[in-house]
Amino acid sequence: MTITPVAPAVDERLAAWPMPRTCPYSPPDAYADLRGGAPVKVRIRTGEAWLVTRHADVRAVLTDPRFSSDDTLPGFPVRIQLPPAPRVMSFTRMDGAEHGRLRRMAMTEFTARRTRALRPSVELLVDRLVDELARGPRPVDLVEHFSVRLPSLVIARMLGVPEADECDFTELSQAVLSQDATPEQIYAAFVEMTRYLDGLIERKRREPGHDLLSRLATQYVATGLLSHDDLVAMARLFLVAGHETTAHQLSLSVLSLLREPEQTALLLREPARFAPAVEELLRYWSITQDNQVRVAVAEAEIGGARVAPGDGVILAYPSANHDETVFPDGDRLDLSRDASRHIAFGHGPHLCPGASLARMELEVALRALFGRFPGLRVAEVPGAVSFRENTINYGLNALFVTW
Prior knowledge:
alpha+beta; 11 strands; four-stranded antiparallel beta sheet; 46% helix; five-stranded mixed beta sheet
């Protein structure tokens, strides 16, 4: 006998999640009002979940062991349309000791020291891409020819992925994170990415090179501390997270600087300001808009709301990073602001391991791009700025520029 699962009852009076933006340059309008009260429940694809919007409440959840990252638990508010399976998203969907064990293996490759050592090679890649822009036709789509290519090249070099495969991985990553593709299309992209990484890691094990996958394969897989499948999952995470988020943050950052010529001129006069400006750009956009989720494993209180075991919880990073109690006039981009308390990379045990690398890539790219093309501007062509809609990571489909 076949048993058909029964969908959970959902209160149709609840607001639907994700919430719409009325302005592409701002988080959903509803967040400002929601920050004035306790968390509320919203409707999601799989039922209901609590929506947490205040900076203090989001930070509290991120450090509270009563809220789990395990997407195989009942009630977990799944956003990426892949069938939940143990370890499929590596340590990002784990808790406790096993999360810490795998994360420590990965973090050896993303320390501040290693990031500093990578900077000269990233600067060379940026210069190469900027040279290509200078030689090419205008206007040019900066998303396609710069923003997507740079982090793809960087993470491919780190992992030891051949540069010839760069475009394929960009497309596969976008497909895996899509909210518009069918589950079948998403799963097909996931399977293809996994197949490739499986073969690549096997080659690294037999013939190790001077790259991240070779080091993890020889130090951990060969010694039995890490399984082959766990390394495949970790590599898949690096590829998706390592280029998708940085690419779209870079595109949006360029757009912001083009919209703020006076603030940008100050950066060019005092280049040391680029690094803190990157923090404000990260805060302002908070592009990981829809996939920061947890499930309660014990009764808890969040900002006045009583959360029961099995309740899903959504952490609205864009709302938390625009919280006026932490960032006065938070809906305004202010490149001189001290934005160091932002949580664009998360907080606590699940803080993004690639945060240092992403910061460095953004700073190097913005300094080089605006330094080389001081007359950079949005091109006057139809569709010059096209925002991504219904995506887990906010960003741009296109940004046509000239100079």
